[in-house]
Specification:
alpha/beta; globular; D-Maltodextrin-Binding Protein, domain 2; 10 helices
Length: 248
């Protein structure tokens, strides 16, 4: 009898609707691979699609704040100040990990690469070589990113710009000789610019890094576990990989 009661309790718990949980978030501005307000239902941005997949996986879980867009620096301040609960997607860095937490499941992987004009015969193989290049013309990198801080730490002279589109325009005009950025972002903007015959990717992948779900430092452990479980299911069934492939 006891065994049947336990089985009945387990079945009832499975049938019970998930407890409602609403978390605050925000969209990142000027990052159309992650969040694209003009992408429509088919391509709203990789990170927004991951967020929606989490909501489908856990129907009781909801996110508010998606009507707001904020530049990366503002996103970081919101997380550090606890004004948003979760943000899809951020790279890790020692400075960031002091201010907030990360869920344990990687969302997708980006590669650090260089884009040059197609007629440039040089190929930087190390950050030291890139630093030597930058003495003549600073390397372009997205403003306020972990990538920018990494270059500065490696003594690479940089010019920080607001978007990949702006960087490609500057590169095409000869105002710089290289853009350092994320492969998935740069590839999309090169394709959209219809100027692919003017640019090339360098041969070197300087680093590979996963993007993560960032969580405010004092988010309850139960909320983090709920998010992590949803992401683990999306990882196991191949959804995360399929979404990343869609945007490459």
């Amino acid at each position: 009898m006891l065994r049947w009661l336990c089985l009945l309790g387990a079945l009832l718990s499975l049938a019970a609707p998930a407890q409602e949980l609403t978390l605050r978030t925000v969209q990142q501005a000027n990052s159309t691979v992650k969040y694209d307000p003009e992408g429509g239902l088919h391509r709203p941005g990789l990170c927004l699609e991951i967020l929606r997949a989490v909501e489908r996986q856990d129907p009781g879980l909801h996110f508010t704040g998606l009507d707001q867009q904020a530049p990366l620096k503002r996103v970081e301040r919101l997380l550090a100040d606890g004004l948003v609960d979760a943000f899809f997607c951020l790279l890790k860095s020692p400075e960031r990990e002091k201010q907030w937490r990360y869920a344990a499941v990687p969302l997708y992987t980006i590669r650090h690469v260089v884009v040059q004009r197609v007629d440039d015969p040089r190929n930087p193989n190390t950050l030291a070589e890139l630093a030597a290049w930058s003495k003549r013309k600073p390397v372009l990198v997205m403003r306020g990113t972990a990538l920018a801080r990494r270059l500065v730490g490696a003594d690479v002279a940089v010019t920080e710009v607001g978007s990949e589109r702006e960087a490609l325009q500057m590169l095409s005009l000869g105002r710089a000789d290289a853009i350092y950025g994320q492969d998935i972002n740069l590839q999309r903007h090169i394709t959209e610019s219809k100027l692919g015959d003017k640019f090339k990717f360098g041969r070197t992948v300087f680093q590979e890094e996963p993007q993560w779900l960032a969580l405010r430092a004092d988010l309850p452990a139960a909320h983090e576990e709920r998010l992590t479980q949803a992401l683990r299911k999306l990882e196991r069934d191949g959804t995360l990989r399929q979404l990343a492939d869609k945007y490459r």
